[in-house]
Predict the 3D structure of the following.
Amino acid sequence: MSAPESAASRRSEADDDLLERDRLQAARPRREALSAFNRDWLAEVWRSATGGTRLEGVALAAVGSLGRADAGPLSDYDLVLLHSERSLPAKELTALADRIWYPIWDAGVRLDHSVRTVSQCRQVAAGDLIAAVGLLDLAPLAGDAELVAAARSTVAHDWRGNARKRLPQLVEVVAARHARQGDVAQSLEPELKEAHGGLRDMTLLAALAEAWLADRPHGGVDTAHSLLLDVRDAVHVVTGRGRDRLGREDHDAVAALLGHTDADDLLTAVSSAGRTIAYALDGTLRRAGQSQRARTLRVGPRRPQMTPLGHGLFASDGEVVLGSSRLAEADPTMPLRAGVVAARAGLPISPATLDNLARSAPAPAEPWPPATRDLLGDLLASGPGLVTVWEGLDQVGVVDQWLPEWSEVRSRPQRNAVHRHTVDRHLVETVVRAAGLVRRTSRPDLLLVGSLLHDIGKVRGAHDHSVTGAATARTVATRWGFAPEDVDVLVTLVREHLTLIELATRRDHQDPATVDAAVAAVGGDREVFELLLALTEADASAAGPLAWTDWRATLLDQLAVAVRDRLDGATTSVAGGGGGSEGLGSLAEEVAVRVRGGDPLVRVIDNGGSHRLDITDLDRVGLFADTAGLLAAEGHTVRTAILRTVDGIAVNEWHVESPSGAVPDPERIERGLARLARGDRAPLSTLDRRRAHLPRPSGESGLGAPGQARALVVPGASVDSTVLEVRAQDRPGLLHELGAALAGAGISVRSAHIATYAGQTLDTFYLTGADDLPLPPARVAQAVSLVIDTCDGIAPS
């Protein structure tokens, strides 16, 4: 980053800090006013219920957000009517409770209520861990305040006395909650209260401090807490309901209400806040565990057990610590060394050591010396331990020292159905996946750095993040001291990181133009291709199960074989990844006789989670549509169809997945195809019944409206076909309908490549006319119109 850019960045960050401080200053009075209103109104309800009479040994108290004075506009009330053993007869106590609860219900407020003595509060806290944490917030609203203080102090005393014994159960309960509710930082629809890094975790931090197990973090955690409270309050206002989940449909309104630039700006702020709270809770739970172990193991004075890890670093009580702060002051590589040691050991770096590294270690000289760059490679190659270690280094600002561009992608959301993480977390996950693939290439350092930078261009305003990222990668790689030829390779990896998976899943591998495009992406360099191939797999597998399925892996392998053969100068053509080309030569005589006699032949090959169907049948108009419809009727999802004709016989390869786990029945498919060839549509009756109960697209939405189909011609994608990309809302049998519409117009489907994400289909069709040549312009226009009308449910005229 140049000096002007760095200064501009610092000014921008300073402006953001001022805006955040102003927002916090405005938020506190608002919540204080809301808390005062709640208390005043409930005090009035109490006066009305008691007739203004002073009752000894009876009090109204609040727990939850009302007790903590951070309730939202539509938060529910969690109230306790406390009483001493001899305060009121049971009947009078019940009547008093009714006089309190009913006005609250009548006002439309959600109410959780109980009537308890101090002893009962103590019993409930002893038997219910969550209730115990909640009762620590017990606060007086009206009546005998000393009774409320006695109840709270008693519960707190018991909590401190038993917390060490109950800590393992508490950790288990918290982990189960996080598993159910997910992570605030990694969700497009975060659960602001119960998820990891949510408001409930702030309550737990206070409870751990109350137990004297660990200090409660402050500073950034308090700022993050306030931000989540603001978002929660805005959700209440926007939805008119006491919700704790920030739904997609509310992003824009909440962002506008809170003064964020846009919904992504809001989500970035929420993610950052969630990360801060989650990191604080995880560290505090470790502190609490250390305190528990120290108390359990103490026999006289206890000295910490320090296991040397090298370079002045030690493993102590489940964390990595620095033996002396002077080591950090003298060595700019110490943060990298600490990261390598900790990640390899599968341990986090202690908060004190992280603060010391961030405060004391000088930034590496630029360009980085080879030894420093090698340490970065070691850190990136450390495996799964990198995730926690990188998060700790990022929390204290060390990552920004190495990579200032990281701030632009930190906590940035990804509005893409295949991605499960924010941009920055996805980059780290990709590095972890790539670390398992380094033996596939002779330059693992370039693979790992390319993985770290491949989405660095996903910044605000980027039109094509691959192009933007390539320019950033050049700057970063030069700063890190890579040789010019290595910088060029890293730029290629970032610029082309989507090329192979797109070619594999949306193009015909048997078309020379597909292989040409892959070869051109890597400049004809075999080693660069292997790097890009490994990055492609790491990227897809890190994104999530929707991006890396068995069939996608199979398609990528098929493309890789074809590209390697081209790069190695092989003269033999490869189709379908070693197995799909059997039918392209002369057909076995017995197969040809059988098929010409009207008996299709189907062979099913298990690909581990998906199946390949080799279907040989007499070629005819509509065969593609019939096969697609039959497979849909059988409950199979088509992923790829590659179609060939040899001497009038279709030799087709279909790749399918079965959501139910069913294995395709070849004999059943053979019978269905034979019946369809004779004009018997009965095999498609199941599909017809299913479609009859589905809502059909109206076809009347305006241009660009959600769900409207689009068909785009891809120029230059094939030398002997017209390639059409189709984007539309998916539905059962859509592929069958498209095939039938094209067949009705005399347009042949040579191959089809199917992908579906979040209910939207992205299909690629290779089309030819009756002459087996690409379609002329008029026929292309006809095909586009047919496809759009079919997807939008408009019957052809």
Summary: Residues 1-15, 571-585, 698-706 have pLDDT under 50 and may be disordered.
